[in-house]
Structure formats: C-alpha cells, structure tokens
TrEMBL record, chains A, B:
<feature type="binding site">
    <location>
        <begin position="554"/>
        <end position="557"/>
    </location>
    <ligand>
        <name>ATP</name>
    </ligand>
</feature>
<feature type="binding site">
    <location>
        <position position="464"/>
    </location>
    <ligand>
        <name>L-aspartate</name>
    </ligand>
</feature>
<dbReference type="InterPro" id="IPR004115">
    <property type="entry name" value="GAD-like_sf"/>
</dbReference>
<dbReference type="InterPro" id="IPR012340">
    <property type="entry name" value="NA-bd_OB-fold"/>
</dbReference>
<feature type="binding site">
    <location>
        <position position="231"/>
    </location>
    <ligand>
        <name>L-aspartate</name>
    </ligand>
</feature>
<keyword id="KW-0436">Ligase</keyword>
<feature type="site" description="Important for tRNA non-discrimination">
    <location>
        <position position="36"/>
    </location>
</feature>
<feature type="region of interest" description="Aspartate">
    <location>
        <begin position="209"/>
        <end position="212"/>
    </location>
</feature>
<feature type="site" description="Important for tRNA non-discrimination">
    <location>
        <position position="88"/>
    </location>
</feature>
<dbReference type="InterPro" id="IPR004365">
    <property type="entry name" value="NA-bd_OB_tRNA"/>
</dbReference>
<feature type="domain" description="Aminoacyl-transfer RNA synthetases class-II family profile">
    <location>
        <begin position="152"/>
        <end position="575"/>
    </location>
</feature>
<dbReference type="Pfam" id="PF00152">
    <property type="entry name" value="tRNA-synt_2"/>
</dbReference>
<dbReference type="InterPro" id="IPR004364">
    <property type="entry name" value="Aa-tRNA-synt_II"/>
</dbReference>
<protein>
    <recommendedName>
        <fullName>Aspartate--tRNA(Asp/Asn) ligase</fullName>
        <ecNumber>6.1.1.23</ecNumber>
    </recommendedName>
</protein>
<dbReference type="InterPro" id="IPR002312">
    <property type="entry name" value="Asp/Asn-tRNA-synth_IIb"/>
</dbReference>
<dbReference type="GO" id="GO:0003676">
    <property type="term" value="F:nucleic acid binding"/>
</dbReference>
<dbReference type="InterPro" id="IPR047089">
    <property type="entry name" value="Asp-tRNA-ligase_1_N"/>
</dbReference>
C-alpha cells in the first residue's frame, strides 16, 4: 500500500514539542543519514525546514531494513509519530533558532522511497566548494541549498510586497511587448529574426521606456510592471544579459511625487523582508554636491572620508604636480583617513593602493602622514610632507587632521580627481572596515545636468535620455543662444543610491512640445532623425500628453542587497555564466539548418 | 501662476453631490466641449471617469475665452468649485449608473492647458468605426477608449487576484529565463542569435515547462509564475506570437490536488471581477464521454444538442451512406434541435450549414424534420425522411424528438463524425441563441489518452507531452507487450474548459524512472534522442524527483472571457496584427548592417 504523499500532514519545518504523540505524514529529501546503535537517523529536508526521522525499535523490521538503503537526496515519504527527543538530545541548533524542529523527531512506522538518486556531483550545502560551472550545470541541485532557497523566497516576497504596495496606490500593472522594434540608441539590442517578414527583425526590449510613456499618453495615470529587460552587452563582472526591472510611471506629477512613491515602495520591502524601517524622507544630494564631496554620483554614505578641496593651499606650494594642476584650471583634493596605530595603512598597503590607482589611470598617489609634535599637536611627515611645509599648518587646520591620520592628495582635472579619489575612498572604506553590512544608507541624487559635452563626438549629449525634462527655473538657459549655458541646465532626473549601489532612477519627462523641440535642437537631432529614432513616441506626444515621470529599479540588485548575496547569479534562478552561456541547458546552441532556412538567414564563420 | 496639476484634489470619477461647494483641482482630457448660451461645457475624462466642467458667469473672462479654444483630447488642469447641477439638469446617465458624477459639475475659476492635440485620427469612443490598423498605429489613443481602459484594469485585477491567491497558498513566484535553448519538439521557436557565440542561438521559451519541473526537483514545492511565452506559428484568426500564461507546478500531489488549487484560483478571479461564485467542485467529464456526447474535448455545456449514437438503427435502413458507414466500422450519430415555429432553421439556413460542413470536409448534411401526425404524434418528413421510414418510430422514440424538431445526421468514421457534429452543434447553438453571455459553464476534461497513433508517421505520439504520467491502474497496459493496449492507457492530464473555450490544462508528471523509460520506448525515442531532446530534464529527474504536477492557463484568454472582449487584441496592450506586425512601432523592421555583421549573420532574399 503506497503512502499517500499528497496528504502530507506537515512540512519538514513545522513540527514542535507540542506535536508529540501525533501521527504525521512527511515527504522530502534525505539530507543526512547515519546508522547509530542499530538505529537509522535521517534528516528529512524540504523547502520549509528539516526534521529528524528515527528508524528504531518501534519501527517495523522491514522498514528499518529499507531505511538502511537510504542515501543522500533520495526523495521519500514516511508515516510516523512525533516524539520529544528528551532533554539531553535536543539539538543545540534548536536553541540558536537555526533548527526550530530540533526538539522533536519522528519515529517512523512506514517508509516509501518515491525516487532514488545517485550521489550528487557536489554536496548540497552552503559550504560546498564546488565550482560555479558545475553548480550551474546541475542548478536543480544547487537550488536545493538552504541559502539559495532563502534567496528566492525573499525574491518572491520582494516582488509580492511591491505589487501589493503599488496596487494599494492605484497603479495598474500593464504588460509591454517583448517582440518590439530595434532602436539605434542605448546599448546593443538582442535581435529576433522574423520568419513571416524575411530580412526583418524584432528586438527584445532594453526597457519599456517608450511604452510606459505611451501608457501615460493613453491616460492610464499610474503604471507599474515587474518586467524582464535585455541588453546584449559585453559581459562584465556582475552583469546578466536578461535582468528584471521594477518599472513605473505616473501622470500629473513632479519629482517629489515620484520620489515619495518610490521611497514608500522600497520602505515597504525593507520593512517586510528585514523588519527595518527606512528613515524617511530619504536624504537628497545634488549631483554637484555628490561629485564635490564624494567624487561620484552614487556615493556610499555609510562613512566619511569626504573629498576636500585644497586647491588654494596647493597653489601656494612649490610642488610641481599641485601647481600645474591648479594653474591649468584643475584642482587638488584631499581625503583624510584615520588609522589609529597605523596597523592597516602600512607602507605596503599604501604601495598597493598607489599601484591600483595607476592601474585606473592616476599618475601617482601623493600622501603624507600626520604625526604629533612635541606638544602633541599634529604635524606632517613622510610622503610629500616636505613639499607641504609652507602650507602645513593651514592645511592641517583646514582638513581637521589629528595625529595618526593620513592625508591623501590628488591633483588634476576635476573629473579625473573625482574618479581617482572616489576609488581611493571606497578602498579605504573597505580596508578600514567602515562599511557595516547591516547599515542601510539610502540617498537620492538629484539635479543631474541635462546635457554633457561629448569631447569625442564634439556635441552635446543627454545625460539621461532626450525625453528628460529640464528644471523649470533652468528653461531660460535651455532657450539661451549661449552654448556656455547649456552645461548648467539641470534636469528633473533622480537616482536612488543604497550604500554606494545605484538601485535605479528616473525622471520627469518633457510634455511640452516647444521644450522637446529645443532639446532635440541642442542635441543636434534634426526633425528627420528624431522621427526615425523616436517616431512613434514623438507622434504620441503630439496628442495631449499629460505631464508625467517615473523610474525603474533593478529588482535583481535590490534582492541582492536584501539577501546579502555576493553575485546576481545567486538571486536569478537560471542565470547565465560570465561568458553568457547556460551550462544547464547548453544555450546558446546551434540550430537545425531548416530553422535558419525558414528565417532566410545564413551564418557566417567569423574571420571569413 | 501655473496650476499645481500634481496636487489634483480628486480624479474625474470621484465627485458627488455631497462635494458641492468644495474647491477642487482636476486634470484630464477634453472628451467633449460645447458652447451653450455663452457658456462652455467640457466633459473632462481620465482613467477614473468623466466630470462636467462649466465655464460660465462665475468664470473669469480670460479663462472663459481660453476655454473657447479647447479642443478634443487636449490635456488640461482646472481649479473650480463643485456645484449641484440642479434637479432638472442631472444627467440621465447618472440614474442608470453610467455616469456617477452626473449630479454635479465643476464651475471653473482657473484653467491651464497642459498640452494641445490635433484632432485625433479617429473618435475616442467605443463606437468608433475606425479600422483596426489605424487604431493600432495610434494605440495610445485607442487605449483611451473607456472599454479598453476597463479591459486593462480588469486584466490587472485578474493578475493581482491570482498572485494574492497563490501567495496565500504558499506558492513562490519564480522567474524563468527568456534566453534559453531551442527544442526541436512542439511549435516553432523564435530564435535569438548570440553575438558572443557566433553561429549559436538562444530560443524564446514556448512555455517554462522544463524549468518548472526543475523547480520541483530543486524542492521549491509550489511554484507559480505569470509569464510571457512565444510561438512562431503561422498566425491564425486570434493568435498572438507572444502571449501570457499563468503557470504553476506542485510537488507531492495528485490530480485532485492540482484541480482543487486551480479551481480555487479561477473562482477567486471570477468572484473578484464579476462577483460570480463558481459552483464547486467544477464538474468533470472524461475525454471519451466528451467526445461521445459533444464530439469535441472542450464542449460548450451551456446547451444540450448532444450527439446521439443511432448506428444500430441506421444499419437497419437501406440508406447507403448510413449502411456503408456502419459496415465499414464507422458510426451514424444524430443531433436533435428544437426550433419552434421553424423560424430559424429555414431551408436557406440549412443549405448554408450543409455548405459550411462541406467546407470542413463533410460529405453532406442528412437531416429530417419532425412534424405532427393526425394524432399529434411526431413523424418524420422532408430531407431523408423517406429513407428512415423503417426505423422512424424507433428513432423518434430513441432520440426523444417532438414535432417541430430537426434531426441532423452524420455517418462516417468516429473521428470525422465527431468533428462535423461538434461544428454543427456549435453553429446550431449560435443560430438558436442557446449560449447566454453571462452563463459560465466550467468543466474539467480528464482521462485523456496518454498516446495516440500518428497515421502519417506510423508511430505512437504523446497526446500531451512525454512527461505526462499514465494513470496508476493503466500501468499494466503501459508495460504490456500488446500494442493494441497502448491506445487505451489513460493519462493524468486535465483541461479546464469554459463555455467551450479551453482555458488551459496540465498533468501529473512522471517521477518514476522505469515509467519514463517505458514511455520513451513506446514513443520510439531512443536513449540518445531522449538525451538530445530533453537532456537536462532527464538528467535532473535522476536526482530524487518528487511526484509533481501542474498546469498552465492562458491569461489573455481568461481576461477575454471576463471582459467579453471579442479579440485577444482587446486585452493585450500592444498586440501584433494578424500579419504579425506592430503598426505602432513598425516592428519587425530592417536593422543596420553593422548589427547583422556583429551577429555573423547574413540575410537571404527569399526565392534565391
């Protein structure tokens, strides 16, 4: 008589001391099994937890014999009776909360092996040392690991919480097409050949940007979607060719409205998943201030080490790199780091940092250490201290340095100095352990420039996209004929940053035809080109568009932050490798000649 | 001073008599505008409803002048005061419930034109006569129509209700890849060329079938996803190349468990959207009974007109088509339709039906009418009545015909007779008006055959797919060497049918290795072929798979039923035309040579 596995009475995470004496039916996987004094103990695992099974004296002989055959990862069903393990035998992990079933065990009466398994190619454990390729190839086993199960349960909870939140706020989840038109802007599109229209192609969407604006023109007022997006980029460290976005758009709104709504959504998620209340409103920082103070538009504000402008003092020294930087219109900036005892920032570490900086293009890493003079007051020594003598007192006072500090300098043009010091700041943050994992520093970066000068192409380009609205008070700059003003136009764009990671961003869009025309003018996009590139959106924007704006968050990245995962691959069920392949399915793969013939396509061998 | 449109106080569907006297800010679109006795009346529309604006004596002169400029579909914002229209002026549509704001109007004080619009290319109305191509080209205007807005609000509610339901039942929404491997089974794949791996291709998924089974192997226990799927089929009447599926899978279950869960989900949706309680459990019909009684495996059970087998009587006639059918192992079946007064089933209509049946392959449409004899008892006349004389009494008694009925016959082999009579039955149902729109007849069709003989390929093929489990009591047939038995193996597959439309279906999958091997054997799929076609799933099923099963529903079709839409294109925001194109974006389109070069692809001109 087979066991009615479809009538499980409990999951493997459910039984407690008060269930003692109850007859139960459980099903799951053999996580561990051991023979002990003629008995067999099995840890039975499912998505919900782990329960100890005991095959002993009370177990019928043939069942005990069958239990001896059990091996790891066999799928079984049992009927038995819950028993308290007895005081001395309660699992220590029960008391730490790791094993809530650790007080009890199930004394097995009946056993059915539902399916067997060969030994898995790697241990199903969070401590497995198997390489990622093997784990991805057997992803169905990898996904049995409790930490990955947890990641995906959290991912589900995040998506559900977001949907509940936006539904409660009157948003409509609307689906946008996946087979759409290739647009020449942005990243590279994945193409999909059309069989019915030979020689023509669909493209997979990089984002539903254009469609969500159409939804606003259509009057849907509040749109949201959790949606897959695609970018055929060269794969860098932690990128995936397909990724999931939380995408939203609202009509009749200004920046504050979108920001308030988005903050509420993220706060709902953090409260639900971590029980953490994000202090709101989330602080805002202008792009310019972020660049000035942190050298980057997505600063990690969990720690200080801010950039300080010491150009005026630097100009007073004879130190050539400083003088030259200032004289050629650049800057000299400085970071002060504390390293009490000098344990971390050894000579060797400083050399390594300098080497890393040279690797990203810096000329060097001038620094000086702060020691105490006879009176215990700070004084500069080592490094470039001797060059700084004329300004030492002013400098130490200005940057507020104390004995034991290190001063790090960077001379050069503003952009380069920002880049190098932003890098250095993060590295110092890591080395000095200033980035606590459980601290959540949210930050909106606002007031981005609308346009930036592209030195290579010798033209103005959009910092975000050509539909981003300029700020109302900067409209005179936009309509000014003096191109000197154009770089100073600020946009209604905003990015949400968490601990130095950009979670997403968006903008208020242009809804005024005259403003849109002017932006295209400054971008050097003619009528014809605009029609060709953005035809249907421009067409739509003629028909009474409402003022609107929105944003998009990277869902994978949010889940990664919430779970503490170290890679996107730990929060995507079936991810691609860094080479853009799937070791599980073998995708991409060759296809039948017939399939290509139907598409009127021929492949070319590279190099020919 | 521009109006603060982002501080709308109400939507256009919200104001009632009790708001009279309140100052409000509204924003929306000019639906209608008319000058009347020096005043201007505007119907302001948004997603939430319509509100009448009055620009009259109380309106400042310049605002009134500006109001005269307003045209249809301009986007505006106003500030004004709510006023009761007065008893005589309440909209009649207020009393019918069509216009909940019909008691009031807003007396406008301030007006801001947010954006203008040229006259739209078609009237934004549910009564528009514009052709679909034009409407799809300007989909953002088409979507402003109240009926389409409603469809998408319902669609959102359906998806949300399903997600709430499955979340409450412990399902995890897990995302599956879109860039995956092409499989040679099933419909045609859309291919995506890989740039990083020249000559290789991803395929867009036809369904997440394999991945959801992997989730079960991975122990996720209960999976659900609302997910886009893709099929590159030749486009028929109402098909879309991309469509949305509600996809689910459960572990440790049998048929009843999946059916119960799915019924609950559909019931939740119907209760939420229509306030309709589906009587549960939903009736079940075996595949065989459905075929016998309705000639089709997705019968519309809102009406009778069932097929009746009269082969034994037919064999007693001299009517050649009947005798031949029976003698060659076929059947003669009969439908009885009532048409009191004979108003519908005129000679002309009958000729049309016969013509239609010939169009789908039938040889003819033998029929006879039932008249009353002198005693008022039924008797046959017209049509083939004279051939039926010897059996007339038995026949009339058997099928329970009354005067005024028509008897429709079909002789031939079982499959053909089923097909033709199923068609005829539906047509009669339409003609005789037997299919009330607001009646919901749900039905599970179960006990499908596992295998069917493919006469062309001369081999057994799966009715569903090769992972569908046979029924336990039919395992002896499966393992029988007598191939006569194989067609009688019933599977654990089930389809949900609503008013003759298949909403979806699924099955319990095979989790026993020996059963899976045997099924492949009967299908003539060798070890190597199986590995090549289903490699990674077979591999996964080695490692302790749990018993599992699931199903998939077509979400688009469910929404279509709920909204009463007449086409899938009315429930998909940006659908493709029947030629598989998007008139809005122009997709598919040609792409830059550079894009093809990067993919190492060349297009071939058809015909060369």
């Amino acid at each position: 008589m087979p066991l009615p596995y479809h009538q499980r009475t409990h999951t493997c995470g459910e039984l407690r001391a008060h269930h003692a004496g109850q007859e139960v039916i459980l099903a799951g996987w053999v996580a561990h099994h051991r023979d002990h004094k003629g008995m067999v103990f099995v840890d039975l695992r499912d998505r919900y937890g782990m329960t100890q099974l005991r095959f002993g004296d009370e177990t019928p002989r043939p069942v005990l014999e069958e239990a001896r055959r059990l091996r790891s990862e066999w799928c079984i069903c049992i009927r038995g009776v819950v028993a308290h393990r007895g005081e001395g035998n309660v699992s220590p992990r029960f008391y730490t909360g790791e094993l809530p079933t650790g007080e009890i065990e199930v004394v097995v009466q009946e056993l059915e092996v539902l399916s067997e398994s060969p030994p898995p190619p790697f241990e199903i454990s969070d401590y497995t040392s198997a390489n990622e390729e093997i784990r991805l190839e057997h992803r169905y086993l990898d996904l049995r690991r409790p930490s990955l199960q947890r990641n995906f349960l959290i991912r589900h909870r995040v998506a559900k919480t977001l949907r509940d939140y936006f539904d409660a706020h009157g948003f409509v989840e609307l689906e946008t097409p996946f087979l759409t038109k290739s647009t020449p802007e942005g990243a590279r599109d994945f193409l999909v050949p059309s069989r019915l229209h030979p020689g023509k192609f669909f493209a997979l969407p990089q984002s539903p940007q254009l469609f969500k604006q159409l939804f606003m023109v259509a009057g849907f007022d509040r749109y949201v979607q959790i949606v897959r997006c695609f970018r055929d980029e060269d794969l860098r460290a932690d990128r995936q060719p397909e990724f999931t976005q939380l995408d939203l758009e609202m009509s009749f709104v200004q920046t504050d409205d979108v920001i308030r709504m988005a903050e509420g959504a993220i706060a709902a998620v953090f409260a639900q998943v971590l029980g953490y209340d994000i202090p709101r409103p989330v602080p805002r920082l202008s792009y310019q201030e972020a660049m000035d103070r942190f050298g980057i538009d997505r600063p990690d504000t969990r720690f200080g080490l801010e950039l300080q402008n010491v150009s005026d003092l630097a100009a007073q020294t004879e130190f050539a790199p400083f003088r030259q930087a200032v004289e050629s219109g650049g800057v000299v900036k400085c970071i002060v780091s504390s390293d009490p005892g000098g344990k971390v920032l050894t000579r060797k570490t400083i050399d390594t940092l300098a080497e890393e900086l040279r690797g990203i293009g810096a000329g060097g890493l001038p620094y000086a250490k702060v020691a105490a003079d006879d009176q215990g007051a700070p004084k500069l020594e080592t490094g470039i201290a001797k060059h700084l003598a004329p300004i030492a007192a002013d400098l130490l006072h200005r940057v507020g340095a104390k004995p034991g500090d290190v001063l790090w300098f960077m001379p050069g043009n503003y952009t380069a100095v920002s880049k190098y010091l932003a890098y250095l700041r993060l590295r110092l943050g890591q080395l000095l352990n200033l980035m606590p994992a459980q601290q959540w520093n949210f930050l909106w970066v606002v007031d981005f420039p609308l346009l930036e000068w592209d030195e290579e192409e010798k033209r103005w380009v959009s910092v975000h996209h050509p539909f981003t609205s300029p700020q109302d008070e900067d409209l005179p700059l936009l309509f000014s004929d003096n191109s000197q003003h154009w770089g100073r136009i600020r946009s209604k764009a905003y990015d949400l940053v968490l601990n130095g990671v950009e979670l997403g961003g968006g903008s208020i869009r242009i809804h005024r035809a005259d403003v849109q025309r002017r932006v295209f003018q400054l971008l050097g996009i003619g009528e014809e080109e605009a029609q060709q590139k953005f035809g249907f959106l421009l067409q739509a924007l003629r028909y009474g568009p409402p003022p609107h704006g929105g944003l998009a968050f990277g869902l994978d990245r949010i889940v990664m932050m919430l779970t503490g995962a170290s890679s996107l691959r730990d929060v995507i069920a079936f991810p691609k490798t860094q080479r853009g392949t799937c070791p599980l399915t073998g995708a991409p793969s060759t296809v039948a000649e017939k399939q290509l013939a139907e598409l009127f396509l021929r492949t070319i061998t590279p190099g020919k």
